[in-house]
Amino acid sequence: NYFLENVITTLDEPIDGRLFMFLLKDPIQDGGQWDMFINLVKKYGVVPKSVMPETESSSNSRVMNSLITKKLREYAAQLRRLHEEGNGIDALRERKEEMLAVVYRMLAIHLGQPPRSFFWQWHDKDEKFHRAGEITPQEFFKRYVNYDLDSIACLINCPTADKPFDKLYTVEYLGNVVDGQIIRYLNVEMPVFKQAAVEMIKAGRAVWFGCDVGKMMERDLGILDMEVYDYGLVYDAEFESDKAERVDYGQSVMTHAMVLTGVDLDESGAPRKWRVENSWGDKLGDKGFFVMSDRWFDEFMYEVAIDKAFLSPELLAVLDTEPIRLHPWDPMGSLAIAA
Predict the structure, then answer these.
(1) Quick one: average pLDDT of 5-24?
(2) DSSP 109-170
């Protein structure tokens, strides 16, 4: 729906223009920003995994994504043709509803049909039986999760010249729910970025983050470290770009989200390495957990979701400002690209 609405709002854009070609590049998102997750939970709620278990396509989504992308591009062409034939917005949106029914059916075939309500009963850790009866996903979230979804702010560390620190940013056309909340990034310097993650972990809280996971990674061992490979020894030539230059010239963007669950601090309280929980199964690393060196953190970490309680009053004030709008193709929007 979000993609097709963007098609409708850009009907008069040239088909070969940068904006429309960008929208067509990845109509379906297989990643996402923290604010996108919040949008989904606020609108639909959550369910226990037993109610909607994993499927082949939820674990291996490439084929599903490619087929839905194919259909959405077809629908984009149809909407633009209807517009060219003189049909009004109401007629286009009526046709869009028919399109959404097909996309919903495709998704339900691959992932299962999301329940509007479900019967919930369980045994707790003391083996005591509980029965809640029929409950909706929204009620389940409110009753059993009851998390303040607005308590988290997304900090980024992007040291490029076009993004001054201590400013709030958003990315145009980046989202997943029509009329949902926009993406908001607070760009901060690395010491602030890092210390916020440290303090949240010290308080017993895990930290969701976005990074460029494929760089200097030993996948099987689960190591993220700047010295895991010595390319200079092999090629007699060092790679010298710093973080800002890699972002500006397309060599590094956010590609994956994981969770920080621990940090090793030295005697002065400075981080040495980080414990990372990944989502690639328990055969990699230490039963699915990776180790990240602090140098790797500096170079390839871009976003952390931090409880506002760990932010200074000055940063909290920035969150209330009007965000600077970035182009849709800005590197900071890359985490939502389909894999």
Answers:
(1) 97
(2) HHH-PPPS-EEEEEE-TT--EEEEEEE-HHHHIIIII---TTSEEEEE----TTS-SSEEEE
Q: Where are the domains of the chain?
A: 2-30+53-111, 152-336
pLDDT of 53 reads 95
Contact at 8 Å (CB) between 162 and 329?
Answer: no
CA-CA distance, 73 to 181, in Å (whole number)? 25
- The sign one gets for the Cα dihedral 134, 139, 142, 145 is positive
DSSP string covering 241-270, please?
Answer: --HHHHHHTTS----EEEEEEEEEE-TTS-
Q: Which of 91, 113, 96, 116 is nearest to 104 (CA)?
A: 113
Handedness of CA 276, 280, 286, 292 (dihedral sign): negative
Within 10 Å of residue 201's Cβ, how many Cβ atoms?
19
CB-based burial label for 129 (10 Å; 0-12, 13-18, 19+): exposed
CA 261 – CA 282 distance, rounded (Å): 16
The CATH classification number of 152-336 equals 3.90.70.10
Strands of the 207-211 sheet, one edge to the other: 217-218, 223-224, 289-293, 271-277, 256-265, 207-211, 301-307, 152-156, 185-187, 167-171, 324-326
| Residue 339 confidence class, pLDDT cut points 50, 70, 90 | very low
CB 292 within 8 A of CB 300: no
Q: How far apart are CA 34 and CA 305, in angstroms?
A: 7
